[in-house]
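User: Some background: our group keeps a shared notebook of sequences we're curious about, and every so often someone picks one and asks for a predicted structure to add to the entry. Today it's my turn. The entry only has the sequence so far, pasted here. Could you supply the structure so I can complete it?
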Amino acid sequence: MNFKCQNCGSDVSDTFQFCPNCGNMLTEMDIIAHYFMRGFEYSAILSFLRKFHNIEMSLRTLKSRLQSMGLKRRNVDADEEEVTAAIREELNGPGCLRGYRFASFEI
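Assistant: Of course. Here's the predicted structure to add to the notebook entry:
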């Protein structure tokens, strides 16, 4: 699992804090965003930060940093029409063979 250097774009090992090509330092925010975007749980992110980057922080601080970057786990801004279309597609496709419980309602 590698980071992309913001300065030169080269791959940087997740155990490094500096880019071996240009010497650019990975920021704490870059590291947090990297792990978050790969779907790791908060506890795993905290463990990685502590073990690989010598960054110690609390769960509350991690959540605060993620919020300040605009990163959140659940996207509640889903378009209702898009969700309805996805459900219809599932029910008209392979999902239509799932049995009477799934077919007992109409959308």
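Suggested note for the entry: The longest helix spans residues 80-92. The two ends are 42 Å apart (CA to CA).
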